[in-house]
Every structure is written in structure tokens, then in C-alpha cells.
Amino acid sequence: MQIPAALNPVDALKGKMPEAVIDVKTFRDETTIIVEPARLPEILHYLRDTRGLVYNYLSDISPVDYYPETRYDGQRFAVSYHIYSLLYNRRLRIKIYLFEDDPTVPTATEVYPAANWLEREAYDMMGIVFSGHPDLRRILMPEDWQGHPQRRDYPLGYETPMFSFNVEEIARHKPFAKE
Amino acid sequence: MSMMTRPTDDATSWEGQVEELRGLVSDRALTGETILLNMGPHHPSTHGVLRVLLELDGEEIVTCLPDVGYLHTGIEKNIESKTYEKGVTLTDRIDYLAPMSNNTAFSMAIEKLAGLEVPERAQVIRVICLELTRLNSHLVWLGTHALDLGAMSVFLYAFREREVILDMFEMLSGQRMMTSYIRPGGLWRDIVPEFLPALENFLSYFPRKVDDYEGLLTNNPIFIDRTQGIGVVEPEDALAWGMSGPCLRGSGVNWDIRKAMPYMGYEQYDFDVPLGEHGDVYDRYMVRMEEMRQSVRIIQQAIKKLEKAPGGFRADNRKFVPPPRAELGRSMEAVIHHFKLWTEGFSLPDEEVYVGIESPRGEIGCYLHGTGGNKPRRVRFKTPSFMHISSLGLVSQGHMIADLVAIIGSVDIVLGDSDR
Amino acid sequence: MGVVGSKLGNLGVVTTTLETAVNWGRTGAMWPLLFGLACCAIEMMSTQASNYDLSRFGMELNRASPRQSDLMIVAGRVTRKMAPVVRQLYDQMASPRYVISMGDCASCGGVYNNYAIVQGVDEIIPVDVYVAGCPPRPEQLIHGIITLHEKVKGERFADWLTEEA
After folding, report:
1. Which chains touch A (3 or more CB pairs under 8 A)?
2. Which fold does the domain C29-152 belong to in CATH?
3. What is the ipTM of this complex?
4. Global pTM?
């Protein structure tokens, strides 16, 4: 079988939809394409189904919280889609930035079914809303949990460890279970 | 904690419960035609604390809704509050059957972010550790999978060999399971003199033991009946649902990161990637059995390479790697470096990297985003079990409950890996 | 059997207290609940497997149902999501019931001092024996079990009555 020659994803995407590409970064041989959030499913579709690109495997969806900093005119969150091409053995990162007051992005489940749970996790942990997702519920935390633990302004929930010098102090208000 | 839910005369309470599930289960469940069965989180064959909500038509599974999170530990959030070097200890406990793989993924991400080169000797030792980890993990999988299908003796045999591997890990790191042996820039320490003889002794008899396990299972008619044609995953589905590792290769997709994007010098080793044909439970079993033999091959080659491999057991860059203990008494500079590294830690740039390696279960990826300071902004682990459990609903559709046990065993889930 | 043999003499009769006999019976076949949470569960499996062979202590029979088990080994980290389940399992166990908290995470939260983990399973269920380690070696778990046996052997009927009330 003849494998079609590999295309440069940056050039291909810029040629196809130049208005959707905001920025391109390269760091340690990893290419990051920053795109318009609203166009995301379309872009992923294009990258998956075009000859010479064939990014047919979704490795991961990684949300980041830049709090207290912001990026690109005050955008607090970012979501990285790590896609992989089994044909050409290369990775690509598609990244979107989101504002704090409306962290909404169209779902990628239509393109990659694997995105289903990854997006649920991003919603649960970071509070990113994926519009059009078939089943956007909490996944790791209990259903009635308040807040999104992975956000940088969410406290770690540290409790004072018990040592011999403070054992009495802690044992006094530690809720020991009864039979 | 199996609890059966059934429509009662009190129709309102019933509807209230099921209404949450509208759209997730079929409409027949809403009318009470099919029953809903809650399996787990405490169930002997869910391999941990997986909860599965099953919609059953008699014994047949109509819908399978896995529910994870009962072991969500907040490891990613915890690492954000620690320096990079300290984070390694926590990564052990993500996939607790393959701690070395997690260590390696995290260390490689740090090394990539820092631009740190690992000496060849450290790479070879890492390969030995990674493949031993693969054996360790596959042995636990084999034992528990066979136990679920009713073969008790395989469990006892597999754990007998596993103890030998754990003893070797203990020689290296002082711990049986949570080794933290692989550190950013190399290893914690060099291998001890007893390690190689023990390893060679183990390799001399282990392939025969694999034959023994196969003799108990591969041609066993009960095992074949319970595994062949069960839980078939088409290659397209496997890819689309993000499966990786032996589950993906059991469906015949040739993707092994060790071959596709070699790391740690895997391109220099001669080994085969076993592939399945049908994508059923039996093929996934055969793939893992063959992988064990290939791992032995890789370790044997690595032992030969180790004699000639140049470099120390960790990088010589004092900004990231602590100086040898002996230097502390002689050099003030070494003392300063040591002090800085163990109090403040090293700083990494405000950039992001993603590293994916082949763990025993599939692709374990580490996404690392630095802040420019000594603590990461975001650490995220892409874990294979998470993806595999998400596809469980697809795989188990139309099977019997007893087959679900075989399927869960064959995709080899670890809940710590899934929930982190 | 040395003690029994010496007491037996030629009479064929042994005298002992009822407490001793009952407590001895309880330690002889204490069935653990087949219940694992995380890493420690793997070490618990190792303890039951060939090398460490927990059946030497009459504990080879793991019961998957809490109704049939006497001992709960909380092996691993208990999360906030799992905590109600652990308590429910404990409530289902029939008295007398014992709990071993295996590993640092179950005993005190271990290395995870964060939002997701219960800082010690003793906040949910009463614990009889704590086993340290991350994860504890099989020998440590066996030591914990023997410690529990010692505790059971020292039990008195009078204490049961007050506990039940």
C-alpha cells in the first residue's frame, strides 16, 4: 500500500482555514496550534480525515488553569488536545484558550468517541463546559461535590498531620467513628 | 454491595430514581421491562473499586454504564504543590502495578522540559526496570484474570514468580512495590552487585514458567469456551475509543510506542510486537503471554548492553541532579547544589510538554506544564485504564454477566490508574 | 498441643474457661472480607498467595459477602466517594467484627493530605489494628493479624455485653 506523503499540519491547516488559527508554537519539537474554540470540531475533523495528516488517535485532553495569570487578553483556561497519527507516528497539540466567565467549547465526541470521558473529566476537575456533549456529568468526584478541584484557586484541602507533640490537640476534634 | 432495583407499587419513588438515567439506559428500563443491577464498587471481580450499572434483559447485558472515581486520589493536584523531584514519589501510586512506568513517564516529561540528557547506562537500566515491571504487571493480570475465570492454581503460580521480581525491585530501591527508583535525570542509585546474578537466574527459568501457565490455560477447553468470541473489539472501534497497549494490539492494530516513537533507546533492541486477529478476550490473553516472552528477550539484550554502556547512572548536570554523596565532603559547590536541590528544587520553564510511553496497560502519557518556578503548573496523566473502562459499555453489550467478568479481566484495568 | 497434652493427662478431660475457648475459636478461623481498595490490596493478595500463605493462620477463605466475614482489612486509600460504601459494608458485617487498617493511607491519609482522601479510616469505622507502611510488606500485615489475634484472645464476655448495649 502506498502511503501518501506526510503534510505539514500547520501549513495544511493555515491553508484550509486561516482565520481559525490564532498562533503556532514549537517547543522541544512539539508543535502547538492555538485555534479558535468555536471551530474546534471542524478542525479536528479536518486533521483526522485529510490525506497526509490522518491524526486518527486522540491521546489526551489536558485542561490547564493559568490562575492567577492569564494568557491572550485575559483568558484563564486552556485545553490541549493531544492527537496522534498512527500512520506517520507523530503527535500534534491543538490548544484553545477560554475566558473565566464562559469556559465553553464545542465537544469533540463526534470526531473522537474517546473524548467522551476525557471531556467529562475536564468538566469535573476544571469546570470546562463542553457544549453538545451527550452525557456531561461528574465522573471522578461524587455527584454532589462543590467546586472543581483541579482549579488553581481550589484549596488542596490540607489537614494538620498528627505527630506525638500534637496528638492530643488533634484527637480532641478528630471525628473518630463509633461502633 | 450488589443491590437490585425493581419497580415497586410506589411508582413515584421508582420513576424518581430512574429519571436520572433517561438517555443513558434504554427506554425499556424506564418502564421496568429490563432490570437495573448495580455491580460494585465492592465486587470481587471488578479488580478494585469499579462500579458498573448494568441494564439486564434476563442475563443479557443491554447497557453497561461504568462509574469510576471511587479511588480518585487527587495525585495531579498534590503534585502541583510539590517540587518536581518530590512528585516522583506520588507517581508510583497512580498505576500501582507498574510504578516504574509512571516514574519514567514523569521523569521523561521533566527531562524534556529541562532539556536534560540521560546517560546511556541509566537508559539501559531503565529498560530493564520497565520490562521487569511489564512482567510484574502481566503476572498479576494473569493470576487475577485466571482466578476470575475459575482457575485458582494459576494465581498461586503467577504470584510465586512475581515475588522474585519484587525481591529484585527491593534490591534496587529498598521497596517492593512503590520503588521511586527512576528519577529525573537518571536513577536513584546504581544497581547493586547482587542484582544482575539474581536477574540472570530469574531469566534462566522464567520462559519455562510462561510455558507452564500456557499449558494450564491456552488449550484448556473451559478457558477457551469462556474467552473465545467474547468481548470482540473491532480495530476501528479500539482506535476511536482510545484503547492502547495489548487491548489495541489484540484487535490487530500494530501500535507499540516502543517501536513507533522509540524512547530510552528501544530502537536498538530486537523484539517482536505480537498482534491478535479477532480482538476477543482470548487474543488479548495471547498477546500478553507473548509480550512476556518478548520482555525476557529485551532484558537479555539489555544485560549484554549494560557492560558496554557509557556514562553513570544519572546525568552529570548539577542544576538538576544531586551530586554524589562522596563529593559533599570535598567540594563546597557540591554542598550548595545539594542544599539547593533538596530545599528549593530546580526550576523549569513556563512551557508545556507531553510524553507518552508504553506501560504494561497501554499508553501512559504525562502532560507537564511548568511555571518558570520550582513547582509545576499542571501535571496530567493520560492513563490507559481510564480509556479502557470508558469503552467497557461498548465491548460488553449483548454479553452475559459472567462474560463481563472475563472482559473486565482481559482489558486489565487498575483503578488507581484510572482514577489517579 | 504441648499444653493440652500435659493438661489432658490420662483423664481425657480438659478444663478451661469458656472465654478462652470461644476466643481461641474466633482466632482460628477468622474470615476476612474480600475487599481491596488500592495498592495495599495487591500486597494483601501477595500475603494470601503462595509465598506468604495466609492460610497458615486460618484465613485462606476470603468471603466476598460482608455478611459472612469477621474481619475487614481496609487495604488502601479511602476516598470521600468511597467512604459511605466502606461504612455500609462495615454495617452489614455481623458482630463480632474487627477492622485492620492496612497501610498509611487508610490509617492516617498517608502522603495524600488533600481534598479527596479521608484522613484516616478511623473517621468512618472503628479500627482495631493499624498497620504502617506504604504499602506494608506481607510480613507486616501478618504481624498485624497476629496482633489482632492477641487482642481477640484477651476479650471478656463482660465487655461484649456493654458493647452490645
Report:
1. B, C
2. Rossmann fold (3.40.50)
3. 0.89
4. 0.90
